[in-house]
User: Fold this.
Amino acid sequence: MPRVSATAQEAADTGKKLLEDNIVIRTFGIRKTFVMGDQEIHAVNGVDMEIRYGEYVALMGPSGSGKSTFMNLIGALDTPTAGEYFIAGQLISTMSDDELAYIRNREIGFVFQTFNLLPRLTALQNVELPLIYAGVTPAQRTERALRALQQVDLTDRMYHTPAELSGGQRQRVAIARALVGAPSIILADEPTGNLDSATSAEIMGVFDVLHKQGNTIILVTHEPDIAMHAKRIVQLRDGKVAKDEETRWALATAFASTEQAQPGEDNRV
Ligand SMILES: Nc1ncnc2c1ncn2[C@@H]1O[C@H](COP(=O)(O)OP(=O)(O)O)[C@@H](O)[C@H]1O
Ligand SMILES: [Mg+2]
Assistant:
C-alpha cells in the first residue's frame, strides 16, 4: 500500500476529500505488530476500511482476530506499526500522544465491556468527567451531562454511584459518558459481553436509537443476534478483513447455507 500522504499538504487534501465524500474513518493498509520475545504477532495485518458518517457497523471474528486492537487504533488509543488512517478528515496515524488525546476527546466515544466507571463518583459525575479534561465550564458540564443521561433514560439515577446501579444501568451511564462530548464516532467493544440477554437487548435498543439519531456506531460482538442490530457486518480473521457485507446480505448468506443442507444431502446436522 503506497503512502497516501507523503507530505502534510497531501494529508490535508486526502482528509478534505474524505470529508466531502462523507467518510468518517478511512484506513489504508494499517497494521499493528506486537513483538513478544523473538515472536511477532500481527494483530492487525493490513486493513483497508471505509466507514461513512451515520453507519452502524458490527465487527465480528474469533477471539484473537484483532478486533480490540483494531478498535484501539481507530479510537486513537494506539498508533499503527504501518499504514495510515484518517478520522474525521484528519491523519491520525502519525500524531503525537498529545494530539491523539485531543482527537480522542473530540471525535471518539468509547464504551467497554466492563463499563470502566469510577466507583466513587455518581452517574452524573462519571458522565461529566470527559468534559473536565476538555476544559468545559462546570455549569456547561452539568447541563451537557444531564442531556446525555436523558438520552439513555437515566436521569432518575444520576446521583447514584455505580455500585447502586444494575449492570444495564451502568452501561447506560457509560454510553452517556461516551456521548457527552458529541463525538463523531461511538466505539463499543463487546458492550453487552457482561450483560444477560434481556439487558443486552435493552442496551442494543439504546444503540439503535442513537443510530437513528444519526450517530456513527461501531461495535464489537461475538453474538450474531447482537450483530443483527447493525446495518453492516465486518468479519475479521487473523488481523485481516475476511468479509464485509450489509447485514441483510449476511442474513441471506446464512439462509443460503442452511438451504444447501437440505434432505438428500449428506451434510445435514
Ligand atoms: N498488548 C499486546 N501485546 C502483545 N500481544 C497482543 C497485545 N494485544 C493483543 N495482542 C495479541 O494480538 C492478537 C489480537 O488480539 P485482540 O485484538 O485482543 O483480539 P480480539 O479482540 O479479536 O480477541 C492476539 O493474538 C493477542 O494475543
Ligand atoms: Mg477483544
User: Anything to note?
Assistant: The first strand starts at residue 23 and ends at 36.
